[in-house]
């Protein structure tokens, strides 16, 4: 579904309208491909806050797969994933907990894969322990020593290639006592895809190692695909609700300037530090590749709010999502004069 149809202001429409990038000549069609699967992880697909008061042992089961997934309408890509989704599953533990990681590389994979957790204190973050050829199964365990929101990713050479193809996710290590309660929690990760073909070419696109090494992405994605968190996958809240977004950057190369158009972050846990004093009333947050942030918002006015990387050309290449806020108008805070296009539907 075109993002334009979801917007409520002409300015926002101009920002995200259109998927195409001008080309000197039409690109050739990409290769034919088998039916693609849905690799997009929904923004609300994450476990809720933990309630245990003492240390626990968590079992995390990961399967590395190589699958053809839907990148945008008519366009597919061979993703490398954890559990058939991009990003991989959101893992939630608490400081002091023990985590057992079981990683299986699917038998029909071509590549060796592993997993490196930034939350791990140990060689390679677990990468050395989980090097698995197709059909192999590896395990290790670690104690979560430091609270925070951490990225995990494949660390098999070429590491940047494995990450770009979709092998990243996040693990939340809650502080003692957990985090303050909110009405909604969401899981969003930004990444990059590098292809030989131009953006929007129909068919199965092929990865470009040259563009990857030159750091020239064809697509910027949130949760795996072009403008994936729009339409039926938009994040949904009600007027008056509070929401927490766990936002990370798989990368592998580009910093994100995370921003929600029309909102101000009430609280920002800088660099995803959950024990430092948070910042308040922040407009845009810088998140490096392999890094994360946690932001809290309160929604006072109904409408569609656009999540972007404020390097705004990237919205045209896919880095945009929608938060739909439903409920009564709040004209004390925001009012559009009658007769303007923005007023329609109010």
TrEMBL record:
GO terms for molecular function: copper ion binding; nitrite reductase (NO-forming) activity. Residues 70-176 form the Plastocyanin-like domain. Cu cation binds at residues 113, 118, 153-154, 162, 167, 310. This is Copper-containing nitrite reductase. It catalyses: nitric oxide + Fe(III)-[cytochrome c] + H2O = Fe(II)-[cytochrome c] + nitrite + 2 H(+). It comes from the Bacteria. Its cofactor is Cu(2+); Cu(+). Keywords: Copper, Metal-binding, Oxidoreductase, Repeat, Signal. Belongs to the multicopper oxidase family. Residues 1-22 form the signal peptide. CDD domains: CuRO_1_CuNIR, CuRO_2_CuNIR. Its EC number is 1.7.2.1. Binds 1 Cu(+) ion. InterPro entries: Cu-oxidase-like_N, Cu-oxidase_fam, Cupredoxin, NO2-reductase_Cu. The keyword Repeat applies. Homotrimer.
């Amino acid at each position: 579904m075109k993002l334009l149809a979801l917007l409520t202001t002409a300015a926002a429409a101009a920002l995200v309208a259109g998927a195409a990038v001008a080309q000197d000549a039409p690109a050739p069609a990409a290769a034919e491909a088998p039916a693609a699967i849905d690799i997009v992880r929904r923004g609300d697909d994450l476990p809720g806050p933990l309630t245990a008061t003492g240390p626990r042992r968590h079992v995390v089961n990961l399967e590395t797969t190589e699958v053809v997934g839907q990148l945008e309408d008519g366009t597919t890509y061979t993703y490398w994933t954890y559990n058939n989704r991009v990003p991989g599953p959101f893992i939630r533990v608490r400081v002091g907990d023990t985590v057992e990681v079981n990683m299986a590389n699917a038998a029909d994979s071509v590549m060796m894969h592993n997993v490196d957790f930034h939350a791990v204190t140990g060689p390679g973050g677990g990468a050395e322990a989980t090097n698995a050829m197709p059909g192999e199964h590896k395990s290790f365990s670690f104690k979560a020593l430091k609270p925070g929101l951490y990225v995990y990713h494949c660390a098999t050479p070429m590491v940047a290639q494995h990450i770009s193809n979709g092998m990243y996710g996040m693990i939340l290590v809650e502080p003692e006592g957990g985090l303050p309660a909110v009405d909604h929690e969401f899981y969003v990760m930004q990444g990059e895809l590098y292809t030989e073909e131009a953006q929007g070419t129909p068919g199965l696109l092929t990865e470009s190692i040259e563009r990857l090494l030159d750091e020239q992405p064809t697509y910027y994605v949130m949760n795996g695909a072009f403008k994936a968190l729009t339409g039926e996958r938009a994040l949904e809240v009600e007027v008056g609700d509070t929401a927490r977004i766990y936002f990370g950057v798989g990368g592998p190369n580009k910093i994100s300037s995370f921003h929600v158009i029309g909102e101000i972050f009430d609280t920002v846990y800088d660099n995803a530090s959950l024990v430092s004093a948070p910042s308040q009333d922040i407009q845009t947050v810088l998140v490096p590749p392999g890094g994360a942030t946690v932001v809290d918002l309160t929604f006072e006015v109904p409408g569609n709010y656009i999540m972007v990387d404020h390097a705004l050309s990237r919205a045209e290449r896919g880095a945009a999502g929608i938060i739909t806020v439903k409920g009564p108008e709040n004209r004390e805070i925001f009012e559009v004069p009658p007769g303007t296009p923005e007023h329609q539907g109010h």
